[in-house]
Design a protein that fits this description.
The protein is built from 5 helices and 3 strands, in the order ααβααββα. The protein is an alpha+beta fold and 109 residues long. The longest helix is centred in the last third of the chain and has 32 residues. Pfam families: HTH_5.
């Protein structure tokens, strides 16, 4: 998932609803912290802390443009998460299919 040197993993990063909203804001465009902060009822410092956690997990990258720091989404860790979730989706689908077969075969007996 995330690099082994990361302080936070993807699961920790996306566990918080504010951080998930930040990721949604960054889907289509790069944004400065001041613009991101305008979407939340919290201080810029608090938003910066959320951005730091997302950066630690590899979900956002930052770059300096003059005095401004801009953030953009890095979707690769989310793709790794999706692969992990796909495995468990197939696992549960197989279990439910087996249960359905069992129930249907028991009804026909």
């Amino acid at each position: 998932m995330a690099a082994s040197s990361a302080k936070h993993d993807v699961f920790q990063a996306i566990a918080d609803p504010t951080r998930r909203q930040v990721l949604e804001l960054l889907v289509d465009r790069e944004m400065p912290v001041t613009a991101i902060s305008g979407h939340f009822p919290m201080s810029r410092t608090a938003v910066s802390k959320h951005l730091r956690i997302l950066a630690d997990a590899g979900l956002v990258k930052e770059r300096k443009v003059g005095r401004e720091t801009r953030y953009r989404l890095e979707p690769e860790p989310l793709q790794a998460l999706q692969h992990w979730l796909d495995y468990y989706s197939r696992f549960w689908q197989n279990k439910l299919t087996a249960l359905q077969r069992y129930v249907e075969s028991d009804e026909n007996s």
